[in-house]
Structure formats: C-alpha cells, structure tokens
C-alpha cells in the first residue's frame, strides 16, 4: 500500500508583497503544500484581509497577520532586510526551516542568517530562478576559461528591474560578480561611470543598475575581449520563475539538518 505524504505546512513571510502574493497563489495549487499563515508587516494596510483574495485566487481562509504560527513546517521569506533579520531570531529559536529570498542585506545582516543556520536549515539565495542559477554555472565556466587571456578581459554586469525595487545593484548581480571575481581575481568594483574616469582597469567589475517600469528582472554579464564580446543574458518573463524556485526550496528543506544551503543544492546543479 502506498503511503500518503503529510502536507508541508507553509508560512509566507512578506505575503502581501509582489512576490508573497505569487507564492500564495502557486502554493495554494500545490498538492504537497498547505498555507497555514501569511505574515506581513505589523503596520500593513491589508492586515486581516484574506491572503488568497489579496493574491487574486479567491478566499483561502488565511488572514494576513504578523504572528508566526508555532505549527509551521517551513517559511518562505520575500520581505525586507530588517524583517528577515527579525525572522532569523525566531527561526533559530524554534528551529524552523526557512527559504530566505530577500536581497539587499548588508554583511552584518548576512551574518545573522549564517548564525541562524546553525540551528535551522536555511536556503539563502539572491535568485530562486532555475535559468538564473544555470546562468551562474555558465558564468563560472566563462570566467575560468578567460582568466588568463594575455590582453585581458573587462567584466561588466548590467541588471534591469522594475521601478519599485529598493536595492541596487540586485542581489543576483552582486552574486554574478562574486562568482567572476572568485575565478578571475578582480578586487574592485565600480557602479556606473561619469566624468574623467581614466582608462578602465581590468582589476574591477562594473555594475549598472537600470530601473524601468514593471521589469521583473534581467541580467547581462559581459566579458569584453579585444575583438569580441561574450555575453550571458538571462531574463525573467514573470515573477513565477522565482516563486516556483522558492516552493522547490521549501520542499527541499523538509527533514534537512540545520545548515546553510543554496539554490544549486536545491536544483542539483
Ligand atoms: N531571491 C529571489 O529570487 C527574489 C528576491 N526578491 C527580493 O524579495 C524581496 C521582496 O520583493 P518584492 O515582493 O518585490 O517586494 P514588496 O515590497 O512587494 O514585498 C515585501 C513585503 O514585505 C513586507 N514586510 C515589511 N516588513 C515586514 C515585516 N516586519 N514582516 C513581514 N513582512 C514585512 C512589506 O510590507 P509593507 O509594504 O507594508 O512594508 C511587503 O508587503 C526584495 O528584497 C527582492 O529583492 C524578489 C524577487 C525574487
Ligand atoms: O526585486 C526584485 O524584483 C528581484 N530581486 C532579486 C535580486 O535583487 O537579485 C531577484 C530578481 O532579480 C528579482
């Protein structure tokens, strides 16, 4: 006789936001998941509203609140750096697995995530998208292959996002830069250029953050050589590319030991 797996009880943190609403909408259709709470900021103007209605999928019977249910199996967090740090303390204390998708954290805030991962399993990644994580592998390969080219290689990263985005450059652009620097050894970075900049040193990576309309996310990694350019380009069409990845990460965490995991772990890349 086949055994029926129990549903994974999911809490969505940042549930009233752009990403939180897509997590609610897709998790509600997922036969392995049951949304048990939808958390947003204590001052949220939509506190008390039904999370399903807010996400446009009809009534779920789960109100937007600010208290995390003690019976949750896993939390998905798309919120703000400050809210993520507060959440880390709760997850560490109660040993709750959590998918941290929030970006824009400073080094100290990232340390809080690392510290919490000693007590609970955590997936922490600036992009939950499959295509972006595959692009990270390609960029690593390109950087390895090009690192010793005698005439040198200039690496520039262009990212485009919607006008509402609050951090720049994107967490994903910074991660692409870290991957390149780990292979090629650049030690500096420059953000945009203006004025008498002088010649471009190859010891830096250039970042360019474009903010227009409702763009859900594009990243272009340029390797500029003498005579040719290699570009790795990855573009999201909808936020569901991130939401599906986050749901996969939540399922990956079920039953895992405490530790810090990446989307490469989740996706087996
Ligand atoms: N890793 C990935 O794949 C992706 C990451 N992101 C990142 O996720 C984050 C959220 O993005 P997005 O959904 O577009 O942003 P939104 O601003 O639309 O959503 C964030 C939500 O978090 C809420 N919030 C604020 N404080 C708290 C709190 N203390 N507790 C719970 N919720 C709180 C906000 O409420 P209020 O508005 O009332 O303050 C808001 O509803 C960003 O950092 C973004 O860069 C986004 C897409 C993909
Ligand atoms: O804010 C967003 O929208 C996104 N943020 C993430 C980032 O900063 O890298 C991921 C994705 O690009 C969308």
TrEMBL record:
Residues of the active site: 161 (proton donor/acceptor), 165 (proton donor)
PROSITE patterns found in the cross-reference section: DAPB
Keywords from the UniProt entry: Amino-acid biosynthesis, Cytoplasm, Diaminopimelate biosynthesis, Lysine biosynthesis, NAD, NADP, Oxidoreductase
Predominant localisation class: cytoplasm
InterPro entries according to UniProt: DapB_C (IPR022663), DapB_N (IPR000846), DapB_N_CS (IPR022664), DHDPR_bac (IPR023940), NAD(P)-bd_dom_sf (IPR036291)
Any GO CC annotation of this UniProt entry: cytosol
Localisation: Cytoplasm
SUPFAM superfamilies, A to Z: Glyceraldehyde-3-phosphate dehydrogenase-like, C-terminal domain, NAD(P)-binding Rossmann-fold domains
Similarity remark: Belongs to the DapB family.
The protein's role, per its UniProt record: Catalyzes the conversion of 4-hydroxy-tetrahydrodipicolinate (HTPA) to tetrahydrodipicolinate.
Protein name stated in the entry: 4-hydroxy-tetrahydrodipicolinate reductase
């Amino acid at each position: 006789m086949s055994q029926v797996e129990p549903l994974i009880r999911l809490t969505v943190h940042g549930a009233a936001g752009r990403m939180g609403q897509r997590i609610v909408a897709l998790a509600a259709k997922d036969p392995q998941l049951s949304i048990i709470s939808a958390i947003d900021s204590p001052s949220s103007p939509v506190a008390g509203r039904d999370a399903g209605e807010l996400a446009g999928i009809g009534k779920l019977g789960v109100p937007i609140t600010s208290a995390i249910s003690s019976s949750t199996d896993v939390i998905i967090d798309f919120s703000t750096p400050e809210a993520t740090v507060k959440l880390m303390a709760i997850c560490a204390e109660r040993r709750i697995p959590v998918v941290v998708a929030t970006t824009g954290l400073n080094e100290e805030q990232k340390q809080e995530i690392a510290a919490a991962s000693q007590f609970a399993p955590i997936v922490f990644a600036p992009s939950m998208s499959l295509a972006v994580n595959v692009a990270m592998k390609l960029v690593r390969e390109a950087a390895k292959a090009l690192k010793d080219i005698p005439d040198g290689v200039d690496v520039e990263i262009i990212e485009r996002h919607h006008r509402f985005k609050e951090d720049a450059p994107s967490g994903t652009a910074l991660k692409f830069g870290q991957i390149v620097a780990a292979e090629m050894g650049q030690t500096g970075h420059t953000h945009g250029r203006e004025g008498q900049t002088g010649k471009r040193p190859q010891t830096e990576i250039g970042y360019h953050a474009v903010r227009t309309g409702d763009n859900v996310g594009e990243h272009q990694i340029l390797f500029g050589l003498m005579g040719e350019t290699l570009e790795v380009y990855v573009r999201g069409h909808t936020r569901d590319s991130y939401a599906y990845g986050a749901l996969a990460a939540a399922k990956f965490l079920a039953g895992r030991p405490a530790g810090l995991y990446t989307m490469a772990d989740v996706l087996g890349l």
